Amino acid sequence: MRSTQTQHALTLVETVVATAVLALVMVAALNTIGATARSRLSNRDRSHAMLLAQDLLAEIAELPYTDPESPGGAIGVESGEGTTDRADFDDIDDYHNWTADPAESKDGTALSGAGRFARRVVVTWCNPSSPSGSVGSETGLKRIEVTVTVDGAEAAVVHVLRGDVGSNPMEE
Asked: Using CA of residue 137, residue 161, residue 117, residue 102, what is the dihedral sign?
């Protein structure tokens, strides 16, 4: 009597199909890992940008609303003051249109780990009833906006409204 034995073996077609499926799974896994790494880097950059923006905004907010030597002047650096060295800035609007690329400390030294970050400040007078806009003359209220970019792309924008203690911006 003859026994019937069936041999089980992988055929070439089954091997090719299994290899193709495995390759697709590997590509999908690598794409997921890459997307996760890019997302982490982006989140870390945004967090660092926010800290740099808040740090600069705190530095600006410590200064007087208007220049102590010539109150009531235009927004910007007054004559006789430097435009690049923040150590000379003595009021908040001296920071108007100030930029640093890369981000630097108040004394001008580069901040560690901030080589890809740039900071920009805009200071404007604003209407107390609509502080998001700007006006061309003194209102007793200034908007300070700090923007931080990473590799040229905007990563953080923070702003604060600062009123003149000596006037009531709500009176018109």
From this structure: positive
The helix (H) or strand (E) run that includes residue 50 is helix 12-61
**Two tokens at 10?**
């992988």
Q: What is the pTM of this model?
A: 0.73
| DSSP type of residue 104 | B
Question: Rounded distance, CA 12 to CA 14, Å?
Answer: 5
Query: Which pLDDT score, from 0 to 100, does residue 1 have?
Result: 56
- Residue whose tokens read 């590997």: 26
Residue located via tokens 């604003």: 126
What is the DSSP secondary-structure string of 107-143? TSPBPTT-TTEEEEEEEEEEETTEEEEEESS--SEEE
Is 125 in contact with 136 (CB distance < 8 Å)? yes
